Amino acid sequence: MAVTLDTDLARVLGAKTAKAMAESLDLRTVRDLLRHYPRRYARRGEIARLDDLQVGDRVTVLAQVRKVTSRRMRNRPGTLTEVTVGDGAGQMQLVFFNRRFGKLEEGAWGLFAGTVGEYRRTKQFAHPDFHLISGDDDEDWARALIPIYPASKDVSSWVIQKSVKLLLDAAGGFGFVDDPLPEDLRARHGLLSLPAALLDIHRPTGQDDVERAQDRLKWDEAITLQLVLAARRRAAALEPGTARPRRPGGLLDAVDAALPFTLTDGQRDVGEELAAELSRDQPMHRLLQGEVGSGKTVVALRAMAQVVDAGGQAALLAPTEVLAAQHARSISAMLGPLARAGELDGDPSGTKVVLLTGSLKAAARRAARAAVADGSAGIVIGTHALLQQGVDFADLGLVVVDEQHRFGVEQRDALRAKGNRPPHVLVMTATPIPRTVAMTVYGDLETSVLRQLPSGRGGVASSVVPVSDKPAWLDRAWERLREEVAAGRQAYVVCPRIGDDDTDTDDADAPDDADGAPAEEDAGGGSDRRPPLAVLEVAEALHQGPLAGLRLAVLHGRMTPEAKEATMQAFAAREVDVLVATTVVEVGVDVPNATVMVVMDADRFGVSQLHQLRGRVARGKHRGLCLLVTEARDTTATGQRLAAVAGTSDGFELARVDLETRREGDVLGAAQSGRRSTVKLLSLLEDEELIAAARAEATALLATDRGLADHPGLAAEVAALATDERATYLEKA
Length: 733
Description:
Elements: H1 9-13, H2 15-25, H3 30-34, E1 40-42, E2 58-72, E3 79-86, E4 91-97, E5 109-115, E6 117-119, E7 122-126, E8 129-133, E9 146-148, H4 157-171, H5 183-189, H6 194-202, H7 207-238, H8 251-258, H9 265-278, E10 285-290, H10 296-309, E11 313-317, H11 321-335, E12 352-356, H12 362-374, E13 377-382, E14 396-401, H13 409-416, E15 424-429, H14 435-441, E16 446-450, E17 460-466, H15 472-486, E18 490-494, H16 535-544, E19 552-555, H17 561-572, E20 578-581, E21 594-599, H18 607-614, E22 624-630, H19 637-647, H20 651-661, H21 664-668, H22 670-673, H23 688-703, H24 712-723, H25 728-731
Parallel strand pairs: 4-7, 10-15, 10-16, 11-13, 11-14, 12-13, 14-15, 17-22, 18-20, 18-21, 19-20, 21-22
Antiparallel strand pairs: 1-9, 2-3, 2-5, 3-4, 5-8, 6-7
Helix pairs in contact: 6-7, 7-23, 7-24, 8-10, 9-10
C-alpha cells in the first residue's frame, strides 16, 4: 500500500477503528498517529507506579492479578466481582458489576485502563478495559519495553500499539516519512533522522532508543514553534509605525503630578523603557509581566498618556466587563478633570476617557463610537466590543492588552488592524512566567518585568485550612473573617461553581484545570468526592450560619452586566461586608479595604489562579489574610501544592510550581484551547537549552536570503502550525 503522512487512517486501519480514533483522540491521518507518542513505557514485573495514581486520572497500568472474588450484592440484584492487582509497589481494586471474567485468574499479567476512582480510601477502577498478556500473544508483549499511550475510553493503549504495528507492516517501515529538518542542523546537534526516531519512539528495544528518539522529536516541536515566532518578529520589524515621542507639559506630566503615590524604581525603569520604544518609528511589541499588585496599570496609563500627547489614541482591552469598568473608573479618577475634556468641569488640555462594552445601551454605544471615531476619546477602554465592526479609531497609536492569557493572538491582531498604521502594542499579564515559557509562548514579544510592590502595602499571610484533618479550623476561619469585618474591613469568599445547576459555562467563572476530577459511580464503583461548592449555596449557608448578621452579596458570570457593576460598586463603597463570588474577581478587582480572601475547595484551582485570587486582598495599608479551604490531606500531592502556595508570595517561584504540576499542553494550548496541542514531548522546565538552541537555529534559517525556500518539509510544518489554528501555544498560554 502506498502510504504518506497525509493518508487517512481508514485506509490503513479500517473504518471502525479510524472512526473511534478520530472521535475520541482526534487522530485522523498517518501523521496524527505517528505523532501520538507513548506517555511512558512499562516492563513486565517492573514497578508501574500504581502508588503514584491520582483520583480522576485516566490511565493504563501494567499489573498482575493477585486476588479475584465474586459475591451477591446486598442492595441491588446481581454480582459484584472485585479483582486486586499489584505491580510490586502498590495495588488497587478493579470492580465489575454483573459480569464474570474467567480469564482474570491469579498470577495473570495484563494492561488495565480506566479512570481512577476511590472508595473507602482505596483506589480503584470501575469496569476497566483490559488486555491480558499471555504466552500466546504476539511479540509486542514480549518486548523489553511496552509502550503505554495516551488513550480514551473507546480506544485503549493496546489498540493504538497494534495500529502502529499494522501501519508499519502496511508501509514496509517508516521509509515513506520525509525528514523536514536540514541535514546540517541534525549533524550539528547529533539528531536521529525522523524515520529512525519514529521507529524508536514506538517500538524501542531499550531506554537508550527512547531517549534518542525523544531528543529528536522535541526538536521538531521546538523549532516549528520558534520558526513561527521568528517569522512574527521579522514581520513586526518590517512594519512602518508612527513615533509617539514624549511631549513636556502634556498629559503625561499631568498624570505624574496627580499620582497620590511615588512610583517604584521598577515602574520608573519600565516606564523609561516604554517611553523610548514609543518614540521610535518601529512599532513596540512588548510583554509587561509582574507580580499581582506591582502597579502595571499605572505603567500602562503613563504610556497611554504619552501617546495621547503625541496626537494618537490608546485602547485598553480587558477580558471582562467588571475589569473594564474598573479600569475606566480608576483611570478617570487618576486623571480627574483631565479625563473629561469637552465637558463643563473638564480640563481642555486633557482628553476624554470612553468605556465601550457589549452591555452599553444603544445611545451610549453610539456616543462612545462617535468619540472614538472623531478622535476626541484619547483613551478607550473596553472588552471584546472594541473588536467589532463599526468601532473605528481616528488614529490608534497604542494597544494595551490586559491579562493576555484571557485573549488570543487573533484578538490582539484584530485590534491592531484598526490603526491607520500598525500601532504600538503592550501586552500585560499578572501571571508570572518562567523564562522558558516566555521564550516559547511570547517569543514574538520583548519582555519587561515588574517584581517590586508599591510601598505601604500590608502584605498577605496565607494558610491552608485542611477541613478533613482539622474541621475546627474552618470555624476559626469564619471567626477570623468576622473579626476583620468588625474592624471595619471587608472580605471575599470564592467558590469554583455558581450553583442552581451544573451547567456553568461562563469562562470568567471557570477554575483552572487543577485537581478537580469528575465524580464516579458510588457504592463500590467510584469516588466519594462531592461536586464543587457553589456560590449560591455557600452564600445562603453563610447567611444563615457563621456569617449571620453580616451584609453578604454574590457576584458571578451569569448576572447581568448592570447587576455585576452595581454589586462591585456597592462592595467598593463598603455597603457590602462579604462578597461571595466565583473567579470573576480573579483579575484586576481593586478594593483596598478588602483584607480577607477565603477560597473554598482551593484544590480545584490552579496555582497561578490561587495567586491571582490572593492578590485581590491587602491592596491597601492593612495586612491581608488568604485562607485556602480544602478537603485534601496535607500528605497528598494536592495538599503539598496548596502548601507551596501558602508558603511563598513569590509569583515567579509559584509559576515554576504550577508548570511542574500541570501538563505541558495546558501551558502551550491543548487543554485550555479545546484543541490538540502541538507540543507533546517538549518540557519547558527541562528543555531550556534545547528551546534556546532551536530559537537560534530558527532565527538563522529565516535570516538567509531564501529563508525556508530550500526546506519545503520544514516550511510545510510551519504553515500547518500557523494556519491550522494549532498555534495554540500562543492563543491561551
